[in-house]
UniProtKB/TrEMBL annotation:
Pfam families: SusD-like_3, SusD_RagB. Residues 46-230 form the SusD-like N-terminal domain. InterPro entries: SusD-like_N (IPR033985), SusD_RagB_dom (IPR012944), TPR-like_helical_dom_sf (IPR011990). The keyword Cytoplasm does not apply. Keywords: Cell outer membrane, Membrane, Signal. The keyword Signal applies. This is RagB/SusD family nutrient uptake outer membrane protein. Residues 276-531 form the RagB/SusD domain. It is found in: Cell outer membrane.
Length: 539
């Protein structure tokens, strides 16, 4: 929590103003960024469109500092899925991150910015609408704010453990020193927020008109709630909530039986933004302002003296780890769409060869560049700007391809895991149906019985580089997680490195989970972060 951004009245009012100041000429298209022209707050919410677009920025700019580097530096480098030796993002490769880490602070600030903006809508929007605004539209927008707040807190509690619960930032305008609340209370807020979102949000049937799928829905909230229940080991509710979403038919697997003409590879193409599998995705926008676009094409892409897949002169900040290179079976269709190996050909990805353009053929391992990993990341790497295939690029080499926070494939695996953990047989038909749907989409033969380890490994293969493996490791017995991570080669293709994680720097860690240190900046402003967590009293 950056105190001067979160608790000071003047800046809080700026946050509120940023959300509310949108002129009546705003387009209905989701990707149109709201203007920040100075107009009267009282005159703003006169139409349904103005209310419906009030949350647009909360799908991109407020998440940028979280997604740009921090998310991958922690969740993927930390978990052993990714390798990097770039000094700004490599601390988690050997578990040495400190509270002074700039990217740690960036991720922390970003999550609190999401909470502050969500709180502004929840607390102030109802009093700023005119008589022409539909109550359903108003409720849906407030539901989106509850959803965003819950998601930000879900990351905070899994990354830092006990944190302050703030439901209205103005409550603390005169007292920036605030105690942190217990982990169980933070989870209770998350549960309540997703429940509230599921009641307020519109129902959707996600079809082929992808523009209609950009905002979250009742099904999105219920799917995220199923994941929360899984982390709480409330397997009966995780199973029930997952089944409710599955039975609704809202979401579908690209390349599954419902959409056989699509495929896993389509998930990460620009033209498939907001497809039927997307439960919640960050919506990046090229508007000429730094921090509105997705930087992954540059962060992940190959950039050497001979070949470039990004629109910049740099690339490959993150690469696959040596540990993940042998994860996939030979016939697993996900491997090539997740990891680029020497000799792989990608006709849909245009690369630049000097001044010429052509399809990407991955060069030999010692020429891939970036981090000397001998391989590159394919997910979110869509190549040199190529019309409708990649969309636009801005002056910072950022693009508009979405970032998944949750996909339907994960919900199916949650359903399978919750079913087994709830006491079902390893050959339970419902669990197998969900599990094998993901596996068969990848071109693999179905299994006739499954264990937790099967599901755990399948999650890693399906969700690699999407920011989940660190959290998966954090919810298994710590001894098991340490054994997995200690055996990972965390070096490059030439120099192996092995590191053993130790108890984190947080006083609440107690050796049971993977918690990060609080940022030094905010710890100095709010020393209560180092005090014992207190119960939260809910209204």
């Amino acid at each position: 929590m950056k105190t001067k951004n979160i608790f000071k009245k003047a800046n809080l009012l700026l946050i509120i103003t940023f959300i509310l100041l949108v002129p009546s000429s705003c387009s209905e298209e989701f990707t149109d960024r709201p203007s920040e022209d100075q107009v009267s707050l009282d005159a703003y919410y006169s139409s349904n469109n103005q209310v419906a677009t009030a949350t647009n920025a909360m799908y991109n700019r407020t998440w940028f500092n979280f997604n740009n580097k921090f998310f991958y530096a922690i969740a993927e480098v930390g978990s052993g899925n990714m390798y990097t030796n770039s000094s700004d993002v490599n601390a988690m490769r050997n578990f040495s991150i400190l509270g002074s880490d700039p990217e740690l602070y960036n991720g922390w600030k970003s999550l609190w910015a999401n909470i502050a903006q969500a709180n502004a809508i929840i607390n102030f929007l109802p009093d700023r609408v005119g008589p022409a605004v539909s109550s359903n539209v108003l409720n849906n927008t407030i539901g989106e704010a509850y959803f965003i707040r819950a998601t930000a807190y879900f990351y905070l509690v899994r990354l830092w453990g006990a944190v302050p619960i703030i439901e209205n930032n103005l409550d603390f305008q005169d007292n920036p020193l605030i105690a942190k609340n217990r982990v169980e209370d933070v989870y209770e807020l998350i549960r309540r927020d997703y429940m509230q979102a599921s009641e307020l949000l519109f129902e959707k049937n996600r079809g082929s008109n992808y523009n209609d799928n950009a905002h979250v829905s009742k099904g999105s909230a219920k799917a995220m709630l199923a994941k929360v229940y899984l982390y709480l080991q409330d397997y009966s509710n995780a199973k029930l909530m997952a089944e409710e979403v599955i039975n609704s038919g809202e979401f579908k697997l690209l390349g599954g039986t419902s959409l056989p003409s699509d495929s896993f590879s389509d998930l990460f193409k620009y033209e498939y933004n907001n497809n039927q599998e997307s439960i919640f995705a960050l919506q990046w926008k090229i508007d000429g302002v730094y921090g509105s676009g997705n930087n992954c094409n540059t962060q992940f892409g190959i950039s050497t003296s001979n070949v470039s897949t990004s629109n910049a002169t740099y690339g490959g900040v993150f690469a696959p780890s040596q540990d993940i290179l042998d994860l996939y079976e030979t016939n697993d269709l996900r491997r090539k769409e997740t990891i680029m190996l020497p000799g792989d050909v990608y006709p849909e990805v245009l690369a630049k060869f000097g001044t010429d353009f052509g399809q990407l053929v991955v060069p030999p391992a010692n020429e891939i560049g970036g981090q000397g990993a001998g391989a590159a990341i394919k997910k979110y790497c869509i190549g040199i700007v190529n019309g409708n295939a990649t969309g636009k690029v801005d002056g910072f080499a950022m693009m508009e391809n979405n970032t998944y926070i949750m996909r339907y494939a994960e919900l199916l695996l949650i359903h399978a895991e919750a079913t087994l953990a709830g006491g079902a047989s390893t050959s339970d038909a419902n669990a197998l149906s969900s599990f094998n749907a993901v596996r068969e989409r990848a071109g693999l033969a179905p299994l006739t019985s499954i264990t937790f380890d099967d599901i755990f490994t399948e999650r890693r293969k399906e969700l690699a580089f999407e920011g989940d493996y660190w959290f998966d490791l954090g919810r298994i017995p710590r001894a098991d997680a340490i054994a997995i991570m200690s055996a990972q080669d965390r070096g490059n293709m030439d120099v192996p490195n092995y590191f053993t994680p130790t108890t984190g720097n947080s006083p609440d860690n107690n050796g049971n989970d993977f918690l990060l240190p609080y940022p030094d900046n905010d710890l100095s402003k709010n020393p209560k972060l180092n005090e014992e967590a207190v119960p939260y009293v809910f209204n």
